[in-house]
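Researcher: Next entry in the queue.
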Amino acid sequence: MEARIHVYLRGDVLQRLRLGSGLILFAFAAAHFVNHATGLISLEVMHEVQAFRLAITRSGPGTIVLLLALLTHVGLALHKLARRGTLRMPWWEMLQIAIALAIPFLLLPHIVDTRVANWLYRVENSYLSELYYLWPDRATTQTLLLLLVWSHGCIGLHYWLRVAEGYKTIAPVLLALAVAVPSLAIGGFVVAGQQTAEIMTEPEALARLREQARWLNDTDSMTMADLQNKLVLGFAGLLGIVGVAHLYRNMPSAAGATDARQSTAESPATIRFHDGPTVAARPGMTLLEISRAHGVAIASICGGRARCGTCRVRIEHGIEDLPAPGQAETATLRSVDATGSMRLACQIRPTGPLAVEVLLRPAQLSADPIEFFQVKDLVAAHARAIDAATLVDVAADDTENLKTWLNGRLDVLLSATAAPGERFRFLGVRVDYLRDRPASALAYQRLERIISLFVLPSRQDDAVAISGSSGAYSVLGWSDDRHSFYAVSDLGRADLEKFEEWVQAKSTRRSETIVQPAWDES
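Model: Structure for this entry, 522 residues:
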């Protein structure tokens, strides 16, 4: 059996390159900021740590690795931005992109003043010389750059790490570090900057610094300033090209098709969402982008990077027209035990008509993971009832009590399951709890196996559907306009899918299905 790829390593080649280069740059920034923080101790310690750090980063291999990481990360980020089919996205993605676009305008001049000056003119960029240059006139700009770089890295790191189990355990520690590192770095910068300014009030000390640092003369300084301006303008021009490319790719055709107000029949890629709108999609857009552009919310915890699998959808029609899943999509689908009709919305680019069912739908495009019941919560409740032999509080043959239990509104789920010859035999109903939330749990039997069907009034933070397995148990969920249903059993996924079809076929009045017992959940 092929080994599964860890969730942190999933994604296509470009995504892995962007991730790897980002981690290298984040490690460089973290080491740099920790070096800043040593200014709270003394200038001498700052220089000792800097000497160790520069021995690595300014070595031949260190320079090549950092340069390649910077060019790769920026280039792939701009490439991805140019290819986006829509700019509608969760706020955390938008914030990270906005920060990323602002960083080069502050970072490029700093790189020219330090690394390029050292390379071209052998300028020795000690902390003493840099602090004298930056403090206090350029302190605000430098602090802003520090905060932007750190924020961009922490956002990316958080939304990369959170897709794996166990992250919540270490998240408080990482949050503390995320706050402590820039705070200490800024504190060290301020303290050391003030000390440097005081030392440099002595003319002899300033003269020695000029000689040791090999400061540039006026002509060379003008050359470096001109280089700074050209690099900043060059990046602005590159950003403009990316913007034009994005607008061109998303520009309506001359015929004006792809407008939501026009007939979707004219579009070769017409997407019909189950219990949702039918929309016309521009070629080249992923299904996730199509959904966002038309206000159809699909969960995407990893931001469309083929890692988490939360954007998976069930293709009801048109799957034969889609290309086969790539390596990244295949690995993620396998990790969530997806059925053959499931695909990742972030990976498929429809070229023909599709009918899809969204399986995990948040209330809105938010930064946080959807707060739905996880597979392990549902399995735990089912196993708890079996182990304690409390499958039912009211048996199926106690009709009057069942009517009272369900407030007198029996659904086909109850009336039809008692009929002889049904493949799923109804046993009764009980009160159960999913986390701290009460649920009606209907017990069924099939081939001596028990199925628990948990039924709850729908809430905004419920997943529309859930599918997965834990140990010997499988879980399948679905919902209607008023209720969420979660079926759990050790029968297996195929039998649960038949159970779902059977239940839905029996339900002739979906808007008046099972209701909760007469407790007030609020």
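Model: DSSP finds 15 helices and twelve strands in the chain.
Researcher: Noted, moving on.
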